[in-house]
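Open question from group meeting: does this chain pack into something compact, or does most of it stay loose? Before anyone orders reagents, we agreed to write out a predicted structure and look at it together. Recording both the input and the output here so the notebook holds the full record.
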Amino acid sequence: MNIEVVFNAYSRYYDLLYRDKDYSAEVGYISTLLTRYSVSGSDLLEFGSGTGKHARMLAQRGYRVTGIERSADMVAQSEIVDGFNCYQGDICTVQMGRTFDAVLSLFHVISYQVSNGAVRAVFARAAEHLRKDGLFIFDVWYSPAVYAKRPDVRVKRMADDLLEVTRIAEPLIVPNENRVDVSYTVFVHELASGKSHSFSEIHPMRHFSLPELDLLAELSGFERLAAEAFLTGAEPSEETWGVCLVLRKK
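Structure tokens returned:
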């Protein structure tokens, strides 16, 4: 499935659906990792920058962020501010012609790379865009938790002054491919006109084990500095749905 097509529909309601997401805490966590592992500069490249919320908050902290986002609608919704620029592009093939102090890929963007070729390509592009000793920081769905906890059907409702949005997420586990196909049905009610409509999308999501990620890192010229629960820093376990990896370019 073409991820760009998927997110061009979904992006219209993306910010509303994730209005309860604690972007501030996540940016604080990423900033702490950058400091802890001694990033020497402030030039960041973000793979899958979405509508730019993480990037804008990082820019407020003094970082210079370049975002790469495949969805044209997401790019159109990105508010460009001092310290943040965003470009439409494919993170599997992007060539910026320069290097950065760190590459970030947040909110499970790496898990959207479901084929081995796509994952290898993204790791290679990250390495190409990093200065020596630069960091690649990303989070993924963690295989032990997927199999222990098993994703279930979830319903989310959000509203603002213009819209009421209800999203139903129905997962299908594809065990031999380390993948979960999440079928989203989104119902949208426009408050002013009273009109309603709906659409459906399938988001294939890959999950990873640590040995698998270590192999990908080694093949791409990285060494792993850390693997921990995203935000909390706890050791990954069967209870850890999202794991954050910090890799250093050798």
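Observations to bring back to the group:
The first helix runs from residue 3 to 10.
The chain has a mean pLDDT of 94.
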